[in-house]
Design a protein that fits this description.
The protein is an all-beta fold. The chain has a domain at 3-119: TolB, C-terminal domain (Neuraminidase, 6 Propeller). The chain contains no helices and 14 strands. It has a 4-stranded antiparallel sheet with strand order 3-4-5-6, with no helix packed on it. Strands 7-8-9-10 form a 4-stranded antiparallel sheet, with no helix packed on it. A 4-stranded antiparallel sheet has the order 11-12-13-14, with no helix packed on it. Strand 3 (20-25) and strand 4 (31-36) form a beta hairpin. The protein is globular.
């Protein structure tokens, strides 16, 4: 479970009832997005039931939680707020493989940007936003080389910034 301490009252408020797999705090500190397992699930179990919850922290005494994805059969993990707080990037555990998605911070306009069907070696690198909230960085592996991709928010690969060199693993 995730809990917060209200320093004015020294009271602890529980934000989530179960296991959390990734979270992100908005720049203003008022919103938290987190990936939560279904209640009672053990880590790694029922990953298809993981949903993204938006938690309003503006009043710790009245914390509100909203399930933004409420999906069946897929799991949403590794959420990341854009710096302007308007969008959220996240990864999806879909039946056909891993996917990278974005949505508005209220859960609307959920859009798939990248999938293993289109990009077979997409790997588990949490999405990271550019400071202007216009681009995302994510990782992939092509022919044994780890690559860092820059994508626009429509899913177009703008640049593979690691094509010029490779990472040596010792």
């Amino acid at each position: 479970p995730v809990e917060v301490l209200d320093p004015r009252k020294t009271e602890i408020t529980q934000l989530s009832p179960g296991i959390v797999e990734g979270h992100s705090l908005s720049q203003d500190g008022k919103l938290l997005i987190q990936a939560e397992y279904p209640q009672g699930a053990a880590p790694g179990e029922n990953r298809g039931g993981i949903d993204l919850f938006l938690i309003d922290l503006s009043d710790v005494a009245k914390v509100t939680r909203t399930n933004l994805t409420n999906s069946k059969g897929t799991g949403e993990i590794r959420p990341s707020f854009s710096p302007d707080g308007k969008r959220i990037a996240f990864q999806v555990l879909a039946e056909q493989g891993k996917e990278l998605w974005v949505m508005n911070a209220d859960g609307t306009e959920q859009t798939r940007l990248l999938s293993q069907e289109e990009f077979p070696n997409f790997f588990w690198c949490p999405p990271s936003w550019s400071p202007d909230s216009q681009l995302l960085a994510s990782g992939a592996n092509q022919g044994g080389n780890d690559d860092l991709l820059i994508l626009d928010t429509q899913g177009k690969v703008v640049k593979n910034i690691s094509q010029e060199f490779s990472i040596v693993k010792e």
